[in-house]
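Hi,

Apologies if this is the wrong queue. I'm a grad student, and the batch job for DUF3848 domain-containing protein from Ructibacterium gallinarum produced an output file that my downstream script rejects. I'm not sure whether the problem is my script or the file. Here is the sequence I used:
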Amino acid sequence: MNSNNLRELLLEKVYKEQSDFIETLKLQPPEKIIDSSYEKVMRDDILMTFEDDYLSDEQVMELLKLDYPLSACYNEWMDTDYSHMEMLRDTIDDYTKRLVDENKQESEKTQKKKYEPER
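Support response: The file is valid. Your script probably expects a header line. Output copied below for reference.
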């Protein structure tokens, strides 16, 4: 089986797994759905990584051997110490610093106008 076929099989499998997960989620009470929202989003993100062509054929074959490769990858993610919160903090920090700088620049322009003689 060639690389493209392996990847297509994996994509079919994880898309089906995610579809089943969502259908099951729809049957849950609202509180459970809300509690599962992080899992749903992260699983969507993991699924999108499978669309990229970065895994070796051997890695794809190992994932195909799993009954639930998407769930397995999500569980692995949950077991890591890595958090995307740091990236969010960095993004917000960069954004607010830019806002402060822009505000300072605008304020300086306004101040200059105040003290410029009228012509």
